[in-house]
Amino acid sequence: MSSFYEWEPEGPSVKTEIPGPKAKEAIAKLDKVFDTRSLNMLTDFTKSNGNYIADPDGNVLLDVYAQIASIPIGYNNPALHKAAQGDDFINGLINRPALGNFPPHDWAEVLETGILKVAPKGLNQVFTAMAGSDANETAYKAAFMYRRQQERGGPNVEFTEAEMESAMNNEVPKGRKELSILSFRTAFHGRLFGSLSTTRSKPIHKLDIPAFDWPQATFPHLKYPLEAHAEENAAAEKKSLEEVEHLILNYRVPPCAVIVEPIQSEGGDNHASPAFFRGLRELTRKHNVLLIVDEVQTGVGATGKFWAHEHWDLPHPPDMVTFSKKAQTAGYYFGNPELRPNKPYRQFNTWMGDPSRALLFRAIVGEIERLDLVNHTAKVGDYLYGKLEALAKKYPGQFDNLRGKGMGTFIAFDNPRRDEFLKRAKAFGVNIGGSGVSAVRLRPMLIFEQKHADILLEALEGIVTTWDKDLGKGGKWPL
Amino acid sequence: MSSFYEWEPEGPSVKTEIPGPKAKEAIAKLDKVFDTRSLNMLTDFTKSNGNYIADPDGNVLLDVYAQIASIPIGYNNPALHKAAQGDDFINGLINRPALGNFPPHDWAEVLETGILKVAPKGLNQVFTAMAGSDANETAYKAAFMYRRQQERGGPNVEFTEAEMESAMNNEVPKGRKELSILSFRTAFHGRLFGSLSTTRSKPIHKLDIPAFDWPQATFPHLKYPLEAHAEENAAAEKKSLEEVEHLILNYRVPPCAVIVEPIQSEGGDNHASPAFFRGLRELTRKHNVLLIVDEVQTGVGATGKFWAHEHWDLPHPPDMVTFSKKAQTAGYYFGNPELRPNKPYRQFNTWMGDPSRALLFRAIVGEIERLDLVNHTAKVGDYLYGKLEALAKKYPGQFDNLRGKGMGTFIAFDNPRRDEFLKRAKAFGVNIGGSGVSAVRLRPMLIFEQKHADILLEALEGIVTTWDKDLGKGGKWPL
Predict the structure, then answer these.
(1) Nearest CB to B168; choose among A171, A179, A206
(2) Structure ipTM over 0.95, yes or no
């Protein structure tokens, strides 16, 4: 099978330990002005191509982390290079509009041929944003305004003096309850103050940062392999839905919306069944609570559908779907016109997104369609998953809780020495990320092919069969 | 005096009412998918040049609003056009890094020759962000973590189990007080949940959105002309500082930081004296409260200094300075190394800014330096202010509370029929914005010259001498 893009290297090439001498020098320089403690790999993007990421020491790794799941169709993709040279693109970049006040004359067309061309079924409008966090937070704002509008008696009821005064004092009017957003334990929805209040992934994300008194329900903890735990898993999902309903009805700060990831990504690649999500949709509709699906990490093809929630076969679409990462732009989709607040300037900010990034997404969508990359990813994912199942059998305890079957390349497994696993992966020519406490998460690009899967599989086998080899000392690095 | 850029039109040209027929058609189309109720003017950016903004009906207006104060050096600036075609620029665009994990090998150099080249005195580090709201919110996060670290006994003291558990439940550990950010009445610091909690500009920004119980102090309400009210104004500033101190010592949720705009911009162009800000710096230092200066709107030259707080002659720099808008990128500067949290991944997100936008800022800085635009703006501002003073005398009640003397082109005045004033300005060939309840705010670009000031002044005089003329009906539009 030939590559989508012929400019890619044949395979990884590890020449020095990582970071090598040149990277170390650059990191020391950078650290003086920019915190480098979370640095994974100093990158030479000019030498990175397709599925391969390069560093200044000449190391080239197969990249199945892809800038935390946000590179869609490869480094230095020629189609994006061409798009970036377009007059419309440069125009959007150097004349950045305040989109709510001064939209470009062709903004409708840009949206319709890009962001809205791939809108989830049933959702035909968009509010554009800058990144996943503010996509979620603006969706929350829409949810709060929608619910209060209902309480008030509709969009035409004017705000009272008491409401306006209390808002200026950061209070709700006397006699009215605060409202909340319900999220799930181990969820990740961003790190600004509102989104972080719904994020429940790790203490390090939340420590010392004030948060709202918002409720969290337990996400079902599925056991693997799924076939062997069908009953238990169904019970866990039922229990989770019951908890959601209990919190909707009883939490001291009643939720006006539930936000959920199709696959909890940062929190450890936690899956639930389509039936669970259909139940959640039913439940939220029953109680007049909005359902926001956070597709920041799952969206744009990696699960073998353009949007992961297409796997659920919902009878009614989510109320809002948020996106970012591989879209290279961000925002939320919605369908109900009442999710537009009743007055202008309630949902507003200076830039409200970025037209040049909307054009980039359009070019990405063009390549996804031209190369049929969503179906491609479904197929490559099936191939990869099958091979990983075999590896898991061959090396018990090394590829635990393999998950993501039928979900494209959105695959993960647990390894008891996960952090070391990820570090050693580089010596085997592969850049991989983790999620949660013990998951190795595979998050390749949409141009990841069977031949890349084979390279990855060989590296994974290498990692788990050489635990005793010293990588760091005595010149044994690279292996 | 010749233009900086020869591609500019000679002057405004108003051919139809605004919106004209073509704009109306495009707006109707856009409104189906994107809320247009806050639309000011549908813009043809391909035909906008320098200080002039164009629309699809062939109207060309002198733009002293500049995308809500965020276009620095003119539409379709050739220097930015050239920068956008650079290999480094395209590379940053199409290979967007997760900057905290995989910074580009030349990121230190990009920062040092751009964002950090113009760092405020005393602040030599930066955390990069996407827009003003998250620049402020990440600064707040740094402030909270800093203060808790002090309470804990320093960066080496580990988190307790109780702290980690309570954080996951959106609580502070038992026996510890919540902390807050103190802001000023009529301030604007953004519209996400944390930043909106410090924003106190208008009810429409805040209604129905949950907010933290954070304190607000009264911003001194200066009376104009300043010379005639020196004593009163000094008293108002003293009172404001006393209120700040009282809130620091007594508010039920103690502030760990104070955030302030050098000139309250969205809130109505409210100024205070350098002495007030020096007092605020002294007070915050005395009580171990951080001072965050929000230069999102005031920064990057418009006040005749690169940063507006340079006007204050502070003995100690602010702890953090946030920026966005005319920088075309965003973030916060800081100096104290302890403002880096004690562990990696505490201040982190996927993109953490945008390298291509950092390169754009570098190109902007290059043009500002080449053309000495900060000093230029100081001079043009003085010229404009002098002429406005004369207009104010000539037309009593039309240019009330003229303010911004010596602050470059960052000038505003009140008009009793402000909204109508702004609307009529378009008929006179000028695009102007408002702020607060009654302010007309001038926010021209840094390439605004004396000749543009003359065109603006003629238009302003036209507006206030033709109130009785009908613009909207009977074909009298344009005048």
Answers:
(1) A206
(2) yes
